[in-house]
């Protein structure tokens, strides 16, 4: 390995270490996920998202120059047609000009023939559509930066209450609970009108609360309650309810709203 390669490798290691520290301070859960990916040499959209956010160009260069990521593959963020467009937006948003210039000038298609490129894009699109059909990815857009916080991450705080103890001559903890304040990790701004409970519900809103089945797979049954109208001499609907087709449990009001089921 020559001197230039040594410097490049050292720069990459330093950047990964610094980014890792930033993510640990931002969210231990993000740090764990990031560390696992990097240790497995996985430089995907999530890793590059944070590399751009914190302006570590060497990480982006390493991933692209070593073909560790396909920039033409569909983005996990449905607002963008592919990963490259998403990353370019992040670079513009965070004013990472060096990375922006690199992304706009770079092409992951060098030394690959056209047929191979088309096949890769077709395969990526096909796999993406298959995954979308089988898996549900929750979505809640930040009011400030318009990012899906389930992708970029969100922070919550723990509220700890202390009272002074005459017996112990010091403050002692009397209770602790999670605060309902939710902060977007992308823009570090508070999210209004959303709670931890609501976000947790969004993660499982497609699933039956009783048996856990995916309602988009097992289906929903609508039931009508009827009463006999003596004046008309026939039964008439008086109410309707919606149930999981597998266990017959009634779905929640929020699930009806999510699936756009009207009474």
Describe the overall structure.
The chain has 263 residues and is α+β, with helices and mostly antiparallel strands. The chain folds into three domains: 3-135, no CATH class; 139-194, no CATH class; 204-258, no CATH class. 44% of the residues lie in helices and 19% in strands. It contains eleven helices and five strands. The protein has helices spanning 3-26, 28-39, 45-53, 57-65, 83-93, 97-105, 114-134, 149-152, 196-203, 215-218, 253-258; strands spanning 154-165, 170-184, 190-191, 220-229, 234-244. The strands form two sheets. The chain has a three-stranded antiparallel sheet. Strands 4-5 form a two-stranded antiparallel ribbon. A hairpin with a 4-residue loop joins β4 (220-229) and β5 (234-244). α1 crosses α4. The longest helix is centred in the N-terminal third of the chain and has 24 residues, at 3-26. The chain is flat and about 90 Å long.
Tally of helical runs: 11
The total number of structural domains is 3
Give the beta-strand count: 5
The secondary-structure element order is HHHHHHHHEEEHHEEH
Q: Give the proportion of residues in helices.
A: 40-55%
Task: Enumerate the spans where pLDDT stays under 50 for 5 or more consecutive residues.
Answer: 107-122, 128-134
Mean pLDDT: 81
Q: Main attributes?
A:
263 residues, alpha+beta, two-stranded antiparallel sheet, 11 helices, 44% helix
List the helices and strands and how they pair.
Layout: H1 3-26, H2 28-39, H3 45-53, H4 57-65, H5 83-93, H6 97-105, H7 114-134, H8 149-152, E1 154-165, E2 170-184, E3 190-191, H9 196-203, H10 215-218, E4 220-229, E5 234-244, H11 253-258
Antiparallel strand pairs: 1-2, 2-3, 4-5
